[in-house]
Structure formats: C-alpha cells, structure tokens
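Justification of resources, computational component.

The compute hours requested in this renewal are based largely on the per-chain cost of generating structure records like the one below. Each record pairs the submitted sequence with a full structure-token output. That output is archived, and it is also reused by downstream analysis tasks.
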Amino acid sequence: MLLRLTQAHHSLGVWAGRPLVIVPASVENAARLVGSVDGVPFPVLADPDGDVRRRLGVPADRAALVIADRWGVVYNAVEADTARDLPPVDEVIEWVRYLATQCPECGVPDEPGRGEWGP
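The structure output for this chain reads:
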C-alpha cells in the first residue's frame, strides 16, 4: 500500500488528500520499509506496540484503511487480511475527491450518519 499511495501522491494531492501510513513495526523496520520505496512524500508512523491501531479499533492482525475529512470525520473504514487486500488506490482517490468537493459551510447534508447537516 505504501508504494501504491506513493505512486498516487500527485492524484491525491490535487484533492488535498494526505495519507498517513501506520506500520506495525519498530522505527528501524519502518525506516527500512520507507527506504525501499523511492520518494515517500507523506508521513509514516511506526507503531511497534500497536497502541495507535488499538486506539483506532484495528485488530493487531488486520490491515485497515480509514478515509476521513479535514475535520477528522470518518466517512469510510475498511479492514482486510493484508494491505494488498485493501481497496485500490483509484477508490481512495475517489473518496478524497468526494470529500474535497463537499461544502458543509453551505449546508450540504453529506455528513455520514446524521441525515441532515446541523446539530
């Protein structure tokens, strides 16, 4: 997934998409992983003890992809056996594009789970 997101960086950036990859590895192993992919343009977080994944509700033996808007509202979350089984990058780009075109300040009722925009 790291390689796929790196290759899609420009397409994500057009829509202000900013990946954060969380790696269940030590800092040293995460650095090796990042070093194996040329030009990773976004942060990679080493999570050797699983604290971050636990807080996100992702089991230690699963990979996950979370799509959130700029305010942290989660619009989609997917778990898979491995990172290879996560949705393709084209789907990630479509989610990022969708979120970038929303205008909650204009009263667009697209916040998930509410039905209408508002308190």
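The domain at 2-106 is CATH 3.40.30.10 (Glutaredoxin). The helical segments are 2-7, 9-14, 27-36, 51-56, 89-100.
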